Amino acid sequence: MKSIFAAISGMVVLGSVSVSALDIGDAFPKMDASISQVKAVDGKTINLNTHRGSEGTLVIFSCNHCPFVKMWEDRSRDLGNKYANKLAVIQINSNDAEAYPEDNFENMKIRAKEKSFSFPYAMDSTSKVATAFGATKTPEFFLFGKDGKLAYKGALDDNQKADKVKINFLANAIEALMAGKKIDPSKTNSVGCGIKFRS
Amino acid sequence: MLNVEKSWNSKSKFWSLIALASLIVIGGGYVLTQFWEGRGFEETKLTESALADITSVDLLKLVKSSGGKTTVVNIWATWCQPCVEEFPHLIELYKKYSDKGLQLVLVSADAEEDRGRVMDFLSEQGVDFATYIKSEPDNEFVMALGQEWTGALPATFIYDAKGDLKKFWMGDASFEEFENAFNIVNENRETK
Asked: Which residues lie below 8 Å from residue A156, measured CB to CB, with a gap of 6+?
């Protein structure tokens, strides 16, 4: 039975999982090694607790199957590739691959190759990285400054369709972060596929 | 007199046969048309008004002016697999409770360009009541519907008769889960 009758509070209920959302200014979540060490499609293990760039860190919750991911994926890839030398960029798939076989590790390898990601695409094999971040959907972006604090979270831009985009939320946030300017808005939303957490 | 009557009866029979034959031809033609178009007899062809544009402001107005009904709002999209899977449960809920205090507000989060795709899906599902398509950018729309919603689909909100949010969840649900959640809010309405 899903916990859909949970009281409405600061917690977010997604299927059978309640997650507490990370807020602006919160520190990069500290996770047990069993959770923080994620395997990327190139076979390397990345420890999220130490994955930091000179200007900050960008964590992208994504996956293969989600049509919303596909709508934003090329723009997300271009942005990730553009800033991968300054930010530690990592794309994470937290979905239960039993629910969505398209999201299994082999298919992640194929997608990374097809899309030429120049940043790691890793499997959150427990779905607990998503829980630690309070991530609930794909695609969802978390940008941390070099101080390790959450500077921006939410959407890549303001439209599913590339030709209708007016505001590049995340690109603006990254530029402001690197210029030491105020990020506005620091929280945005877009519709996306709910993460299928492993039970 | 007899002859005249006989003659009249013959004519009457003749025209009756013609009328019957016409009915068979017209009716049969209609059946064949339906058959060849591949449409079920129960399926409804939707008009454009069955999918109205809606903003978050309009949506919250609908919730507040439910006429004493409990409102179930479901945000979905044709692209969203769990949304599509749970959709028949919402139609079942509507059929069972629309005359027992339920106002069902279905809002597609598909892009405007995909309106046709949405209409086709609604037709397939046998939807014969007004539903909506989001006509506001994601960010504003998601933010306006409350802090709990991150934009993950599907999302379900249940408001009481006064328009206060009583239940909310993201992710798909079974018919029983929809029904139980609706009944809890709706029973409170009835006992007030």
From this structure: A72, A75, A76, A79, A139, A141, A168, A169, A170, A190
Q: Which two tokens stand for residue A37?
A: 């060490």
Quote the pTM value: 0.80
Q: Cα angle vertex A23, ends A19, A26, to 5°?
A: 110
Contacts A185 to B, Cβ<8 Å: 139
Picking from A13, A185, A189, the nearest residue to B151 by CB comes out as A189
Residue A125's contacts (CB-CB under 8 Å, 6 or more residues apart) are: A38, A39
Q: Do A191 and B75 touch (CB under 8 A)?
A: yes
ipTM of the complex: 0.80
Question: Cα dihedral angle (A164, A166, A170, A172), rounded to 10 degrees?
Answer: 150
Is A158 in contact with B138 (Cβ distance < 8 A)? yes
Q: Does A170 touch chain B (CB under 8 A)?
A: no
**Residues B13, B9: Cα–Cα separation, whole Å:** 6
Chain A residues 9-28 with a CB less than 8 Å from chain B: 12-15, 21
Q: Mean pLDDT for each consecutive 10-residue tract of chain A (199 residues)? A: 39 61 94 96 97 96 96 96 96 96 98 96 97 96 97 95 94 98 96 93
Q: Are strands A45-47 and A37-40 parallel, antiparallel or unpaired?
A: antiparallel
Strands across the sheet containing A137-138: A137-138, A192-194, B152-153
